[in-house]
Automatic annotation (TrEMBL):
PANTHER family: 26S PROTEASOME NON-ATPASE REGULATORY SUBUNIT 11/COP9 SIGNALOSOME COMPLEX SUBUNIT 2 (PTHR10678). This is PCI domain-containing protein. PROSITE patterns: PCI. Belongs to the proteasome subunit S9 family. It holds the Pfam family PCI. Keywords: Proteasome. Residues 223-392 form the PCI domain. GO terms for cellular component: proteasome complex. It comes from Buddleja alternifolia. GO terms for biological process: protein catabolic process.
Length: 423
């Protein structure tokens, strides 16, 4: 036995648990791992020691040491079954993921593990780590590399018919195509994930993720009622598991209500017993502020909400996209209402009435004129908006065209009949 090692027994684990500092506990557990004993009991103790070291290093935020631990454990992996190796490797990768600001380290760690698994021919572990790597690359906005990795992985997993991993990869592919704004491919990948999920038991967390992605895609197609149903299902699943994604499902539920002009329901949902105090916070406060602004048709309140909750609204790409559309619609409705009594009005006066910057209002008015939302022109020299009367369409032209069309049908019919008589 090495002089620096400790016996691989339960007493050593207890000694580590009673250590005064995390560093001392980690040192004791490393000494347990250095013990050369390889009996089934010793291996079991070492597995527990690895789990304890991972937890302590995670709590201390020592991500680089977790990466080094994985390298040091490679000789130990040859002594235990492949299934246990996979469990330990994935556990350490999960521990690194829980340390903030380690995305680059996670990518390098996953790439290192993939190389090792290829050399050791550990196919199943490699596939799962590659799926994890693709997700990290997507989060890091390295879309082309993630797509290349996924395209090869999907073919491989389909041949092996690993349904559970296939669901995860198809779902990841759907998210990736959605990030690239390729909605048809995102929907196709999601359909493939649902098809694979129907053939097996899918864990509730995975099912919640599928429902969340379904809601996002339906919302993108402006089908907010269906999107609300999916977000509700996702919220139910995540809420039961106390998963952090529950708050985002709830947030998108409220967004769907606002987008279908049911903003008054938002306050009721937020105050319901199911939501309670558990989810109260800036995310829900942001949606409540937007709902209030929408109910009052107030652009000023809308702008204030966007400024006060920039992180929750502007920096969430899904919410930002839909709120931009809602803001434009609300602004157009307000402008049309304001300019209705005028035939000529200063743009500065409109900006004062709507309580927005003049250049912002002028830009929106020019866009509305080009989109033919109303007839008019901007006189920039005088700083005025000139509104034209709606041109009255002459009903005689459509009636004349319809008469000519009917006459054409009559002539064609007579020609067919005469041809039959001549024959």
């Amino acid at each position: 036995m090495s002089s620096s090692s400790l016996p691989a027994t339960s007493d050593s684990l207890v000694q580590a648990a009673e250590a005064k500092t995390p560093s001392e506990a980690i040192s004791i557990l490393y000494q347990v791992l250095e013990n050369p004993a390889s009996s089934s009991e010793a291996l079991r103790i070492k597995e527990q020691a690895i789990t304890n070291i991972s937890d302590l290093l995670r709590q201390e935020g020592r991500a680089v040491e977790l990466q080094d631990l994985l390298t040091k454990l490679r000789p130990f992996f040859s002594l235990i079954p492949k299934a246990k190796t996979a469990k330990i490797v994935r556990g350490i990768v999960d521990a690194v993921a829980k340390i903030p600001g380690t995305s680059d380290l996670q990518i390098s760690l996953c790439k290192e593990i993939v190389q090792w698994t290829r050399a050791e021919k550990r196919t199943f572990l490699r596939q799962r780590i590659e799926a994890r790597l693709a997700a990290l690359l997507m989060d890091n906005k390295e879309y082309s590399e993630a797509l290349n990795l996924l395209s090869g992985l999907i073919k491989e997993v389909r041949r092996l018919d690993d349904k559970l991993l296939l669901v995860e990869i198809d779902l990841l592919e759907s998210k990736l195509h959605f990030s690239l704004r390729n909605l048809p491919k995102a929907k196709a990948a999601l359909t493939a994930a649902r098809t694979a999920a129907n053939a097996i038991y899918v864990p509730p967390a995975q099912q919640g993720t599928i429902d969340l992605q379904s809601g996002i895609l339906h919302a993108e197609e402006k089908d907010y009622k269906t999107a609300y149903s999916y977000f509700y299902e996702a919220f139910e699943a995540f809420n039961a598991l106390e998963d952090p994604q529950a708050i985002y499902s709830l947030k998108y539920m409220l967004l769907s209500k606002i987008m279908v002009n049911q903003a008054d329901d938002v306050a009721g949902i937020i105050s319901s017993p199911k939501v309670g105090l558990q989810y109260q916070g800036p995310e829900l406060d942001a949606m409540k502020a937007i709902a209030d602004a929408h109910s009052k048709r107030s652009l000023k309140l809308f702008e204030t909400a966007l400024q006060n909750f920039k992180t929750q609204l502007d920096e969430d790409p899904i919410v930002h996209r839909h709120l931009s559309s809602l803001y434009d619609t609300l602004m157009e409705q307000n402008l049309c209402k304001l300019i209705e009594p005028f035939s000529r009005v200063e743009t500065a006066h409109i900006a004062e009435l709507i309580e927005l910057p003049a250049h912002h209002v002028e830009k929106k008015l020019s866009q509305m004129i080009l989109d033919k939302k109303f007839a008019g022109t901007l006189d920039q020299g005088a700083g005025c908006l000139v509104i034209f009367d709606d041109p009255k369409s002459d009903a005689i032209y459509p009636a004349t065209l319809e008469t000519i069309s009917n006459m054409e049908k009559v002539v064609d019919s007579l020609y067919v009949r005469s041809a039959k008589i001549m024959a």
